[in-house]
Amino acid sequence: MVYGTLYLVPVPLAENAAAKSFTPYLADTINHIKEYIVENEKTARRFLKEAGLTIPQSELSIHDYGKHNRDVNINSFFIGLTAGRDVGLMSEAGCPGVADPGSEIVAEAHRRGIKVVPLVGPSSILLALMGSGFSGQSFTFHGYLPIDKVERSKKIKELESLASRFNQTQIFIETPFRNNQMLEEILRTCTAKTQLCVACDLTAADELVQTKTIAQWKQKTPDLHKRPAIFLIFRA
Q1: Cα–Cα distances in Å, from 166 out to 101, 136, 140, 163, 195?
Q2: Could you write out the DSSP letters of every residue in 199-220?
Q3: Fewer CB within 10 Å: C terminus or N terminus of the chain?
Q4: Which alpha helices (DSSP H) does 143-207 contain, by range?
Q5: What is the pTM of this model?
């Protein structure tokens, strides 16, 4: 049996950032595929239009693996692939499979012997690391930290210690509406000389990427409320 190929199709990180996100190969690929597995159908359809889709969208078959459909039998997502059709995988923003539940689809594809092809596109984690000036030789992405204040403060102290002991960049995120609380906790918990990079609204017109010591951040803090942001800690 000849299987189809699972293409991992990146999506822009911000509105009006399409020109910064697409490659000619990506446009060629989406005009070859008629079936998609997506986290958000509305976002996916808008992206395909912006990326130069020439296939009528009425001809597309789109499977939703969003949070309300995670209990769906995973076999249903692989009918097209096992029948020999190429399929695209998209997250709501950025690279599918990176801090994204699409990794479950990719893992299942490997278990089934299906070819996986990741396409070039924006990753907020790597863009933030690139812009931070911190170590790109050794870094760890931790995803979301605990919501509980005591546990969150404990985790931040742990990450600061790891950054110092291993000369390693520590990267983490927060839900946008809790960003200001996260920043306050970092400034309250970390020592004055620890370096913090805040990377916010990456690829957007109001993008912010700044690296300062904790002492410097305390002098003036930005309003990050409801702005997608990534936090990076480092100890030189």
Answers
A1: 29, 13, 11, 6, 15
A2: EESTTSTT-EEEEEEHHHHHH-
A3: N
A4: 149-166, 179-189
A5: 0.91
Which tokens sit at 61?
Answer: 């078959």
Give the number of other Cβ atoms within 10 Å of residue 230's Cβ: 24
Going by the DSSP 8-state scheme, the letter that residue 70 receives in this structure is: T
For the stretch 116-175, pLDDT in tens is 999 999 999 999 999 999 999 999 999 999 999 999 999 999 999 999 999 999 999 999
| Parallel/antiparallel/unpaired status of strands 139-144 and 169-173 | parallel
What whole-number distance in Å separates Cα of residue 98 and Cα of residue 129?
Answer: 14
Residue with tokens 């002991």, as numbered in its chain: 165
Q: Is residue 66 scored above 90 in pLDDT?
A: no
> Residue 70 has what pLDDT?
62
